[in-house]
Task: inverse folding
């Protein structure tokens, strides 16, 4: 059995900036445009939005495309390792953005269905989607598929950015219906992704004012927040230099 060295004092933080960041906002608010302004960012484009900008991008039309990209990055990382590079220098891209995660979830539904039909329990399943399974059982397979894809991309870059749209939902707060802005993912998927992220930023514009804004405030009516100390509770004109400080 391996010997575990138990810590006897607080261990210093090993990173400052967020490893995984979620940004969401209304359609056409400028989510893709700001990605193109981040140096060293590879955009995995599931909706074709980055085609309107000069950008470092690859089209993603299914989950197989995304896995192929990850494998290509792993192969490049091995070449860099063999050449003597270490640490973050092993990664060809400092940042990778999935734009959008909503569309990738649709792709995950397709691949999750194929995988389910190839299992013993699902070999006789004739539905078009696992989401047709009774009692909402299919959402489990889609969640697992999407999280597996997110983890794969996270492993091949120092910093991962997840872009999603916004949706409104109603919550019961002591008998009162409260309208809440949430990220546009199905069922429990939104809360699972948010729990994995270091920061969740809401992108918006103010009429009559120039530029895109971002908020990391934690409010009952909006899903936002940050475990990164310098971003927690902040809102400001969008600036990558304020989000990634190292």
Result:
């Amino acid at each position: 059995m391996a010997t575990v060295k138990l810590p006897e004092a607080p261990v210093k933080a090993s990173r400052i900036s967020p490893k995984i960041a979620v940004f969401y906002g209304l359609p056409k608010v400028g989510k893709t445009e700001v990605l193109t302004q981040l140096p060293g960012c590879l955009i995995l484009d599931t909706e074709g939005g980055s085609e309107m900008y000069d950008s470092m991008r690859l089209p993603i039309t299914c989950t197989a495309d995304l896995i192929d990209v990850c494998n290509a990055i792993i192969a490049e990382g091995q070449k860099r390792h063999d050449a003597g590079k270490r640490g973050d220098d092993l990664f060809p891209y400092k940042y990778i953005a999935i734009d959008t995660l909503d569309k990738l979830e649709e792709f995950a539904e397709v691949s999750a269905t194929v995988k389910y039909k190839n299992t013993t329990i699902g070999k006789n399943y004739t539905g078009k989607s696992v989401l047709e399974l009774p009692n909402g059982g299919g959402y489990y397979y889609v969640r697992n598929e999407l999280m597996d894809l997110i983890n794969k991309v996270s492993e091949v870059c120092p910093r991962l950015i997840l872009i999603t749209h916004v949706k409104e939902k109603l919550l019961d707060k002591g008998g009162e219906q409260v309208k809440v802005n949430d990220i546009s993912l199905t069922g429990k998927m939104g809360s699972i992704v948010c729990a994995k992220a270091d920061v969740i930023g809401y992108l918006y514009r103010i009429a009559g004012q120039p530029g895109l804004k971002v908020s990391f405030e934690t409010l009952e009516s909006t899903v936002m927040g940050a475990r990164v100390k310098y971003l927690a509770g902040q809102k400001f004109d969008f600036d990558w230099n304020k989000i990634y400080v190292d």
